[in-house]
Structures
1.
Amino acid sequence: MIPFRHTLAACIFACAALAQDSKTYKQGHSHIGTAFDEGPRQKPWVIEGIGQSHFPITTKNPEVQKWFDQGVALLHSFWYYEAERSFRWCLKLEPENAMAYWGLALSAMNPDRATDFVTEAVKRKATVTGRERLYIEWLAAGRLPDPFQDKPEDNERGDDNARKVLETLCIKYPDDMEAKAFLALASMGSNRYGAELMIREVLAKQPDHPGAHHYRIHNWDYHEPEQALFSAGRYGKIVPGIGHALHMPGHIYSIVGMWREAAISMDAATRAEKQYMRDSLTFPFNNWNYAHNRYYLSYIQEQLGMPAAAIAGARQLIDAPKDPKDNTDHWRSTRSFGLAALARALLRFGRFEELADGKTVPWREKVFYDKMSKAYFEARAHFAMGKTDKAVKSISAHTALKPELEKNKEVEQVWQIQSQELKARLAFARGDTLRGLALMGEAAEREFKLQLKYADPPTYPEALYNSLGEMYLEAKSPALAAKAFEKGLELTKMDLFALSGLVRAHHALGHSEEAKKYADMLAFATSGSEPDLRAVRLAAETGIKGEPRDGAPAQQRDYSKMSLDQYGPSVWEPYTAPAFDVRDASAKAVNLADFSGKNVVLVFYLGQECPHCMLQLHKLGKMADDWKKLDTVLLAVSSQTPEKNKETLKALGALPWQLLSDRDHAVARRWHSYDDFEEMELHSTVLIDKKGRVYWGRFGGDPFNDTEFLTAQIEQMNTLREK
């Protein structure tokens, strides 16, 4: 225990600091406005492999044009965070540049920040050309409230007005391909044909325009996907440096059944994202696309008969650092994607004992989606193992969750389909075959319609028409089984599970040519698969030997033989810590190697004059016993001199901090704890594992004080399997 007098001394010290000038509360926050408290705080660098886009603006500084063009190219691939960094540097170089604010408005994911930036652009629109004014008015029409509108929150009217301004821009400046690209973006999905014509016009002038290829992929993602095959093949080649640009072609390839190409696309994307995270000292939870991408890749690997790779990817997501803001218990968080991917792979490849053991999938006890999924997957496992009584108990647990659906509407439809499917399986297991088939048929149709709405990847773990087909085969009804598997194949092209079912159903019907056709397609679909897959084995037991034949609409490369190392590493790992050369309170040199074998909580703080910093040091420091049990030391870095640190240590009393001096902010810059735009120190809290690797961090305007989260993260660091 820390003596009371030291705790009291620290409190008195902190309270005295709080009594200082109120401006000290804003240390670490932007001096320009609250909109700048979010987003990147370090200057940009030239990013390779992002495609080319030239968007001339009014500026006296050629460097501003350079960074503006980079920002626009990044916007065209939806890399908003890095686009904002480029536009922010434009503003650093020219503080009154109207178009820099325009770029910031397009980059800001937070609507309030976007509104602030548009407002600033509007204030300065008299300083730019008529063309640029129209660009600003486009955003103003869509983002700023209309005083003549009865319902300012009516986004539909704002979007319509904004589109009209873009149309005017295109008419007045017909050679401006950027305007046409942005109009195609605004039109895609709702006016697919119109968007396609605009995209063709852009590509006729600029064949490698990154936005045109990107928007074409989105435009045809769920309708006539073959229309986007050319752009799917081209986009990743002209933009190999952006994860989302490598990822999006995988959507098209998945929908048309080109699973090899889809895997290459998604795998390259996850690698590019991991490389970026490594280079930029960011984490999986900072990357908006990474979890979805890795989750999707696991699904594609399942479609190729690669369960080990799919499961390994799922575990990467489960083991990724948590975050109280960006990797929470939400059903679409990084960890949740990992749990769903793991359970799905175990189910689809018949690893039922692991699915039912309560350990292999580390479900969270208090999370509704996990409780629902756990009950469902365990029921499925028990049915597969012939343990109907245990399945009934799991069904009861699933049913008992119904009252909680009111607070979990986003997954209600999935729960309902699961409920009906489990009832179907129970009826079938108890010998009520007709009822079981009827219930499964209804569940399959509901799951079919759900997947038509969202299939990247499907929300549901298994195509239920395939399940229905298996039930029909078991009931000795191969004709109906064939119909069910055909529906499964209609929904998921080149699906190995549907193909296996069709081989068996047509063989049972005596349709040798049809059975051979599907056997050939199955042989191609699983040519790079793991050995002894159940679906392949069951098809082979018919005696029909397939010769690999691709049923996809275009030629594919062999994913199993591809090297994708040029895009980045295959696995996310904690990063090697940046250089750390500081001085302690005795002016002795200190580096991280001095703490090898210990975890480190590293805090960058703003000095003794910052009251929030002192409160943070006190709050974390008073948990000395907890840190000791976790093999953890506390280090705090500021620009204070060693002499000043001696004074601060006296004020902190017996709290177990080592205060370190970084006089010229060199270390703070390396650790992203310095704002290059406003040239000031930032608050940062970083966790470093026993190997000296950076595992988690929070950087910005406020100290991080969630001690419960920090201790839980360190416990996870201590227990993670060796990489």
2.
Amino acid sequence: MAEVITMPRLSDTMTDGKVAKWHKKVGDTVKEGDILAEIETDKAVQDFESEFNGALLYIGTEEGGSSPVDSVLAIIGQEGEDISALKGGYSTDKIADADIPEENKTEGKVTDIETTEPVEKESGENAEIPADVEVITMPRLSDTMTEGKVAKWHFKVGDTVKEGDVLAEIETDKAVQDFESEVSGTLLYTSVGEGEASPVDTVLAIIGPAGTDVSGLTSGGAQKADSKPAAEKPSENVTASENTSASENKEEQPVANSSTERLAISPLAKKMAEDKGIDVHSLKGSGENGRIVKKDIENYQPSAASSTPVKQEVSAPAAVSAPAQVAVNFVQGEDSETPNSQVRNIIAKRLAESKFTAPHYYLIVEINMDKAIEARKEINSLPDTKISFNDMIIKATAMALRKHPQVNSTWKEDKIIHHGNINVGVAVAIPDGLVVPVLKNADQMNYNQISAGVKDMAGRAKSKGLKANEMEGSTFSVSNLGMFGIETFTSIINQPNSAILSVGAIVEKPIVKDGQIVVGNTMKLSLACDHRVVDGATGAQFLQTLRTYLEQPLSLLL
């Protein structure tokens, strides 16, 4: 059977590899251990050895060319073997004519040996989709989504799926959403396991009649051990792990250590194991089909063949803008790791983009909150009414934005968009990081509506119950750490907004009033602005208006 060789990850920062030199050409015989090619990474040029015996049937990247890590680099198999299903739609002009039987050749076309369905040689299109088979791709569930993570599969390969069934829970950069099947049939293939991500519009699953061969539709033939078509899954591969709890995402296939079987291990992992003196036969690989990869070597603990992971305890997040409380048991002398969630990865990416692309500057103002405190007491004395200071700040902010539309704007490369609606994003902490649900048309909402909206969205954020559209369309953001006693802080702008307001704690302190030193209550607000859109004077005028609304609450009625 032909083996797909993918571009290896030869360094921890490598994303693409360049083929500096091929030591073999299509048609050559290759032995295990032969240097197949020289791969240039971002750090060095390294020899890449073959792990298989056979003939070199296909080259995916020519000398001097580059390709992403894990993309098809080459295919090794038996001479004359059909590999059309393994190339994932690559052009066939790199395959020697001798590799294709004469009866399957036609002028300008290469015929698929198994299905005898013609595939255009020039076009490089993927194999045709069989009748009654539906390819499900990773959906785009938000306007900023580039990839999605499967938080949970509700079906496994071989199960019967009906139209409308929740196929999986997809974690985007903003929320976890149920993803329903639009077709009925048997789940024949899944491209990623639980907790794994794939780009938008790539193959997520395949549904069709039971027993359908879909190998030609799976890119590069690199299927997960538990994601092969049901018809091809041997019964002897079913292990007791299938009866484990639902929290375990997939079977753990032990790596064979028989002297008659080849050990599946990446070149980098093999070298690292040799350097560290690790017996790789004692490891269980976490890669595809149980392949030992770099992280298995990095996580190896000699004290036990299979170490027990450090338990992660997560406490409930605070309602508004509280930092995520993620506690990890401390073990003296031992490091531990917490895999990044999709939300955490997106937070890191977006905040870095914002900080390094938008020229931030900060304005800080101190506000006397005495009258706001009195107003809140009176409002909360009304039946069925209970508002927070944060609700009052959101309302005052929305009204101030109405008077200063430049702050309620977005930068584009060739223009500035002045938004017609005032949609305030409210930063809410969750264990995975931070989400920003949006109060649409906040300037038109009363205190009770704002309070109810914030409580509802903050509560659903904790259970990942927010919909993507509830976290889209903000034109300005508010972040509040006052409940933790933080008096002053600055925030990174939540793009595409042009400003974000940071709210500190209300502090009782001596103040000067009418020439006398008295005890008063003050609060500091910090406004981070994108200087491309909001000039210093504009930001200062916005804060002046906001100060008036909070120091004189009745002015909101004018």
3.
Amino acid sequence: MTLLTNRERTILMDLARQVMPRTGKLPAVDAGCTERFEEMLKQAPMGLRMGLRVSLNAFGAGSILCATKKSKERYLQSWLQGGMLRRNLLRAVLIPLKISSFSHPLPYRALGCSYGFDVPKSETRRRWRDKVITPGQIDTKEIEADVVVVGTGAGGAVAAKELAEAGLAVAMVEEGDYFTRKDFDGRPARMQRKLYRGLGMTVTAGNAIVYLPMGKTVGGSTTVNSGTCMRTPRKKQEEWKRDLGLEDLGPGMLDDYLEQVESFIGVAPASRDLLGGNARVIARGAGILGLQHGPLRRNAPECEGAGLCPFGCPTGAKQSMDITYVPAALRSNAFLYTGLKAQRIIIEGGRATGVVATTPGKKKIKFFAKAVVAAAGSLFTPVLLKRSGLKNRWIARNLSIHPSGQVTALMPGRVDGFAGIPQGYQVTDPALDSVRFEGVSTPLELLAGMLDLDGRNLMRFLDGYRNISTFGFMIDDTARGIVLTEADGWPFIFYNLNRRDLLNVKSAIARLARIYLAAGAGEVYLPVRGHRLIRNQSQVKEFESCNLKPGDLELGAFHPLGTCRAGGSPRISAINPEMETWEVANLYVTDGSAVPTSLGANPQVTIMAMAAKAAKRIAARLVH
């Protein structure tokens, strides 16, 4: 099946040659990049496919009038340096185009890097795998259980395991498929198509475009995160108790559950032997500036440093939900139904009694149960509740996302930042208590997609790939967004970065730039329009004094939270302290949407602890 017209392929190829010219080590763009681009599009939701084609044709309408090389360059720059809408329309095309251009062996060989990961050809068959049911294996329209759990991420998998081990019959309903080590070949573009929703190109609308990638697979985003495990900050628990009436989530009240989940997934500090070149560079710069730094805590006790955490751990070391809690649930009283999308919750007499789900072929399956646990994630659980008729005003509101970014530096010596743990190191700056600095490692094709450079600047920067170091930051945001609706699996999210958060982002970028320059960087790439490449501290100072706008930034986010927040009253929350909705009995929420506020810390163990606590109470009600 072809998606692009011949004219669209011509526009795409001309754009690729302009943005990625042959200049140094890296080979010229090959004709296969348009085929790989089209292959990516086939896996995207219809809305994204249409949007990318509209953007491509809008750009092509003007480029066709450019007769000379110089006029084409001027035209391209008019888009790249234009207003936020125009710039991001082109960027939406350039990101998958760059990824497609570099996602094959030749560029890697040219740089002396290995390509891919040797996966096992087969795996030991586990008996519990017989309890994983795909759509084609379902030969009935109705399924009965004690509890239906929608979603298998940090909240859903923990709840399912605890409820199953309490003696309840549990049906887990998961929209994604169950991938295992033999599927994790370490190729980012391929893994994005398999493991992420919409190629990882979910975005927010508002005064800045923020990319918000989410896992769509068994294990949810725990399968594609970097394994960082941080305990719930005490100041947040104090806030929940003081402002929201959540005595049960106050200081110390989650400790037993945090210890329980940390033990089950093997949380420990990252091994210093596997921290890699990024950590060495950052440690040098942070040390010169007098900042605290050290390893992060992670759930990968047998880590081998493959450097591929966000694309499915190929060694099975990362103890994500697909490796730990889901199999534990299946070894007990649970069944897992993959490839099913929950459409609505069945509500009878003010009580949740089941879930209606559909297969990819739109076959309808009804699950009947005594209770329903909604854990489809902070962007989809509120949509599911609204679609089921719930009216509470806090549902789909209060969205926090931890706006994030990364700074990239070209160092004078070899870094090989792709080798080792991608996110194993952190820096603490007491002057920026709303910012967390955490490591990040970016494969070649994704680095190319992320860098908003073009032409010779882009290729020169990528030629030095083995000398490149990257490090990230995230903001404990005070802005709040809203999930408006969902269509074709694509959530529509509105989020405006406020002034306070904007200044924190600016300070975070400047701090990382200073760390890199102190460490000896020759060039530092900032994710900021008008301040791309800087080479000295005076340019950092110039950046710090600029009039920055949210639309000037290139941001991502990985921790959507709060869209069905817990609280002590329906006036201020969507669910009660026991994680049950105020409006419908026996309907519980145990994913990130239940977390009341922005955490300012990676949330997976907080979500897991809250889910374990809720499951204990659900089981006490249902087990007789």
4.
Amino acid sequence: MNSKRKVTRKLYGFLAIAFLIVFAGNVCIAEAAESTNPYSQAVEEQMPEFYVNDFAGIFTEEQKNSIISKSAQLEEETGGIQVVISTVDTWGEGREGEDYTYAMYNQYKIGEESMGILITFSVNDRELVLETGRNMQVFVTDAQLDDLSEGVMGYFSNDEFAEGLMVLQDDIIEEVKWAVPEDWKSQIPLTTVKNETSNVDATSSNSSMLVVILVLIAILIIMLIITIKLKHKIVETEIERKKEIRKLNRLEEEYENYKKDVKFCLDKKNKEAKEQEDSLNKQLVEAFKNVSILENQYALLCAWRERAIALNPELDSEIEIMIENEFKDKAAIVDKEIQSCINLAANPCHIEVFQNAVNSFEALDDNAKRYIQSDIKRLYEYLEKSINMKAEIEKQEATEVAEKACNEIKQIMDKYSVGNNENYEDLVTTYQIYERLTNLQKSVFPDMDMIRKLRNLITSAKRDCEDVAIANTACDKVRKSISGIYNADEDDLDKLKNAYKVYNALSENQRKYFDEEVLKELRRLLKQAEDDYDREEKRRREERSYNNTYNSGFMYRSMGNTHNHRPSSGPSHHNSGYSSNKTSNRPSTTIRLSSSTRSSRNTSRPSTSTSHKTTVGRGGKASGATIKKKV
């Protein structure tokens, strides 16, 4: 274990060093590339109005005031989002519109937290370029801006540049209000860096950033090592917890078995006591009947006696002599029987003879017992000794039978350490060996712990059999659900999810008996259905985006300037993978306002004062992914 940990630590060390070397090299390369980056070129200084930088002079003062008012109102309502329009006569010799617009965005620092959009237009080059901030692309994609710009191409084709830019501004502002939530600051990427007060030059900033990054990497490695150790500790703790849970479960099972044994014994004793009580009640009822009969006979005899005495006064003494002689005769018979028993030795085979003699003695009347001459105490002693001898013999025989049954059960128990569905029948058959023993044989059984263990195994095996039955039932349900499905799509998703819920509802032990082939097929079909759902959901989102932009540009297309639109989920117009001349005929699912309707609606809002103060950027950085339109 120690050697394994050492190897792991060495591996982490080598990985950390390699990562630092690669990262430092990448930073140096990035610094070298930054010095020759065409995007770092200088552009014209921003105008005091900031929201509109009309270097080409295509806007009237009234149009400028309208643009500034709408952009200022957007910034105030959204808490820092800026939309800026710039026009130039030409990009300049050897310069591209994308490079120029990217550099202008960064120099003007448009939008707080890089939440801004820059619209630039070159009159001589007849090119329209849109640049979005790094974080603005989270909410407004290049595909959406591309569709919005397509909707105003009719203006540019008719050389109505100012009107086209103003309509495009309206569409973009409306799109921003629709797509960006009010709490956008809490949803932008956490890695955004605020550069509002940065006045340090590029070289020192990169060096400082490199040092900070290296320190952060070192901290990250330390945290990674601590996390791994904590994870190992958590895993060990979880293992110990599971062990304790299993131990607690075993104790609970044993406790339940003890409760069952006690309940069984109590029920048995209660049953025996009830049987004895019923027997005594029957004997008592019978005795009451006999007493009633005897009372009647006694009354009859008393009546006869009185009549006889009345006829013969001396009859009473004669009767007494006759009764006394009867007592003597009965005592002589019993005395002879007792005397013959006393001459025998105490032995289990003589118990019946001794018991009959005792019964004969106890059946005598007390007056007759006075004439017994034999030693009745010796008779009782012989009877007791004989009974004890018989009990010892029976106990010895029961012990032999119990030991034999114990050995037989032990031989079978040695084969099984756990109880499951495979050995359930054998365990039940083994327990029947113990159940066939008599109560005396059970009382001298030499190993009751083994019987308790056998009961626990039977309980576990019975539970396992139930798990097998539940797993088979669930497997049949799942098999029935997926039957007939060979290539799943989103229409089958709910059915497959419900089938998988049937599997998830099984316990860990029940899942062991679930058919692996059925589970494998279910997962395959479920993945197919989920993938198809994701594709369809992506298509629907693109369709909604298309319909939104389609309705936004409907007014301009109705003027004879119909343009093709394309749905796209990619981050850039150039990398979207769709040709600009592809047309989508998907049905509309969402209705958006046209630009003219939005413009008329915006007129009802309180306008911002036209006496504008100088506005500056909020420190935003461009994304580098631009949209370029040749008009």
